[in-house]
């Protein structure tokens, strides 16, 4: 599987690692797995350094629309994306489209530790339904 992810409820963080060639279906499957009511507000760390994106302009537009749809369903956590310095083309277009579509802090990094440091400095919001019920969602791994 080219996309590996894990949700850490104690730190309200989801990590996603892309390996190999990634297509839109891989991203859609991952997004559907992590964008649940329990983790929507979690901070997300996306590591693209071991993968490359095989996306058309239509794929990028569809992903940006998908991000807008999720944003309408609740508070979304900050997103840090780590990419190789030599990446251009589809990834740059994807980052631009996502940043325009997202109603949340979003930043692209070249260094994993810098991305982690930035995410640690961004407060994680807790959804009202969790606060009211004291819910600790079950661990998620994909």
CATH hierarchy class name = Alpha Beta
Strand content: 15-25%
CATH architecture: 2-Layer Sandwich
**Beta-strand segment tally:** 5
Radius of gyration: 14 Å
Shape, principal axes of CA atoms = globular
When the domains are counted, the total is 1
* SSE-based structural type: alpha/beta
- What string gives the helices and strands in order? EEHEHEHEHH
- What portion of residues is helical? 25-40%
Which strand order does the major sheet show? 1-2-3-4-5
Output the number of helix runs.
5
Instruction: Tell me, rounded to a whole number, the average pLDDT.
Output: 78
Largest sheet: 5 strands, mixed
- CATH fold assignment: Transcription Regulator spoIIAA
How widely separated are the two ends?
10 Å
Name the poorly predicted regions. 126-142
Explain this structure.
With 142 residues, the chain is α/β, with parallel strands linked by helices. It has a single domain (3-133), classed as Transcription Regulator spoIIAA (2-Layer Sandwich). Helices cover 39% and strands 25% of the residues. It contains five helices and five strands, in the order ββαβαβαβαα. It has helices at 24-34, 57-72, 90-101, 112-121, 128-133, and strands at residues 3-8, 13-22, 43-53, 79-82, 106-109. The protein has a five-stranded mixed β-sheet, sandwiched between helices. Helix 3 links the parallel strand 4 and strand 5 (106-109). Helix 2 (57-72) packs parallel to helix 3 (90-101). The longest helix is centred in the middle third of the chain and has 16 residues, at 57-72. The radius of gyration is 14 Å and the shape is globular. Mean pLDDT is 78; it is low at 126-142.
